[in-house]
Amino acid sequence: MVPSLRQRAVAQALAEWKFFDRPTFQNDILEKKGRQAADPGRWQRILAYWTEGVSDPSMRYREDVIGNAHPWSAVFLSYVLKKAGEIGRAHV
User: Fold this and answer.
1) Is the dihedral of CA 33, 82, 66, 63 positive or negative?
2) 31 phi and psi, to 5 degrees?
3) Is the pLDDT of residue 75 over 60?
4) pLDDT score at 65
5) Cβ contacts of residue 31 below 8 Å, gap of 6+?
6) Residues 6+ apart with CB under 8 A from 42
7) I need a surface site. Which of 22, 42, 46, 72 has the fewest CB within 10 A?
8) What is the pTM of this model?
């Protein structure tokens, strides 16, 4: 049985959370920091959210994807859903 889009999206989001070393909050207080957007390898992943998730080629450098100038929560969701859809097509 092929997992549903929802199941694949959750699995992809969890994989991304693990990639950032599982940062956690409790009552709006940071309990576990995890990796940061500016860390080596991590900013490149955020760059992939922009380029693969929403096909935005203007984001090319570390400075483009860190800080608050370009929030990336929506492109993260686009990336996760796109990847989940690609995984689903591979199972059909």
Assistant:
1) positive
2) -100, -40
3) yes
4) 84
5) 24, 25
6) 19, 20, 35, 36
7) 22
8) 0.84
